[in-house]
Amino acid sequence: xFQRLFLLIxxxxxxxxFFEISFALKEGKTCLLNKNCxxxxxxxxxxxxxxxxxxxxxxxxxxxxxxxxxxxxNKYSWLTTHNSFARLGAISSTGSLILxxxxxxxxxxxxxxxxxxxxxxDMYDFENDVWLCHSFGGxxxxxxxxxxxxxxxxxxxxxxxxxxEEVVTIIIEDYVKSPKGLTKMFNxxxxxxxxxxxxxxxxxxxxWPRLDDMVQKNQRLLVxxxxxxxxxxxxxxxxxxxxxxxxxxxxxxxxxxxxxxAESKPMNDKSKSLVLVNHFPDTADVIVACKQNSAxxxxxxxxxxxxxxxxxxxxxxxxFYKRSDGGGxxxxxxxxxxxxxxxxxxxxxxxxxxxxx
Length: 357
Ligand SMILES: *[C@@H]1O[C@H](CO)[C@@H](O)[C@H](O)[C@H]1NC(C)=O
What we know:
Blueprint: H1 2-17, E1 41-44, E2 55-58, E3 78-81, H2 108-113, E4 116-126, E5 129-133, E6 145-148, H3 149-162, E7 168-175, H4 181-188, H5 211-216, E8 221-225, H6 229-234, E9 237-238, E10 243-245, E11 274-278, H7 289-292, H8 295-307, E12 315-318, H9 328-342
Parallel strand pairs: 3-4, 3-12, 4-7, 7-8, 8-9, 10-11, 11-12
Antiparallel strand pairs: 1-2, 4-5, 5-6
Helix pairs in contact: 8-9
The chain binds 2-acetamido-2-deoxy-beta-D-glucopyranose.
């Protein structure tokens, strides 16, 4: 009720500011419509922070490859969406209404175009196929099933085909038991040729190959599974051999703490070269997300930097990645990239020679 009142007031304020509105507004400026804002921004109000003024806020990080391409893959940070497939307002491909939480606002293609490069996907056997789904007790139902996973894999295929310098990571929460279920699907989606081979992944905490080398060899798709046996059986990397991750859900939102999630080695285990920071609640909430994706996210990556043995996250995973009070998750990615790539706290200040300007 309270939030509705806020929404009404926010709309009135939008109307009030209408006459001041021009176009190509910078971050933080008052806006009315998305198109009032500069590229890479949209117009929104963060009611969860009791802010009523709609402002241009960021939907895109600075693409690090726009400046520096020759570093090992583990020296970059990527915007990552939690449950990337669970789109607000989606209707199940079974035709059912979806009675499961939703975590994002736009399609995979739109996320890719906004610079999201890490995707967390939950995959299940369902309807004689592999589906993107939530579950109750490990089972996928019509009302928790979003769509066949191959649909979104084809979106990745189109993007990788069109954008020859981009590298994308898919992290699968893997419940697929059907024999070679994932392999068959990645083949069918035309993605096998892009897959970065497990044999080239560093096993003992070494640096990853350089980004430009991955691009040159066209090995531009990293896929990780939560199912350990698939590394030997299908050549799909077992996530916990290569990555540490902090606790997800409410446990990951606690100020000043960055414990590892149960499946992960401790955050400071440097035999794993990649670091992923989760920052989203147990129960996804489109209203509260703008607050969680703002100052507390920046705090969280700094806390996790210390917990991970002074390593900035390679992946920053959030719900509703476009929502914030201004800089949001894109800014957090810029902070991580600034520190990783040139040692300044803001990637905007990094120069092409890798120095801090
Ligand atoms: C689930 O959806 C499928 C179509 O994909 C339909 O054939 C089936 O009857 C549905 N099951 C239930 C229980 O509604």
